[in-house]
Amino acid sequence: MEPVLELKNVSAGYGRIQVLRDISLKAFPGEIVCMIGANGAGKSTTLMTICNVVTAARGDILYRGNRINGIKFSKLPPMGLCQVPEGRRIFPRLTVQENLELGAFFRKDSTRIQEDLDMVFDFFPILRERANQKGGTLSGGEQQMLAIGRALMSRPRVLLLDEPSLGLAPLLVGQIFNKITEINRQEGTTILLVEQNANVALKVSRRGYVLETGTVVMEDDVKNLLQNPDIRKAYLGE
Predict the structure, then answer these.
(1) The architecture CATH gives domain 5-235
(2) Which pTM was predicted?
(3) How far apart are CA 206 and CA 27, in angstroms?
(4) pLDDT at 238
């Protein structure tokens, strides 16, 4: 099976500051892959480089076998590649439904758009209840649901999730990750997950990559990573 998303020896940074050093990773159709590592390891920069918010200085970014280096961020959702950024970044003055409809702004298939809106409301029933409420009045967990739902409205083949548990209470973290696995299982969406909470990230993923100072230092099935004493000590609090 060919990967739906692949990075080959990608390096990137900010001006003269190099953050990523020859990053290589793969995500195969229908799997959840996580990236774990300490703050500043380069996890979020990796996602932003995939989306060309940060320009790759070297290496290749391949989506469905095609090189996408240099393609504008706004062109990627119609291609099936969508990111849920760290911090949600919803539109606080727009209603929940307006936020969701913006996720489908490039689509013309109005019937399918309504079907997908219903799908999002089925995944996140609280959003149906809050449909006419301003996004900025939602709780942190509800805003995260809205950000994920908005991305789903683009019908992504690959969903990039950046720190979905950030700032959420433990109970809400569990709810969010239950929904992430449900989306993956029901829709077959490939998910590349960046998450500070390594314990929960490894439990919902199939494979994982460990980043340190902009370099992949380990990759394996999550079963093996969870049993690795170095991982357990460094990232699982043991």
Answers:
(1) 3-Layer(aba) Sandwich (3.40)
(2) 0.92
(3) 10
(4) 63
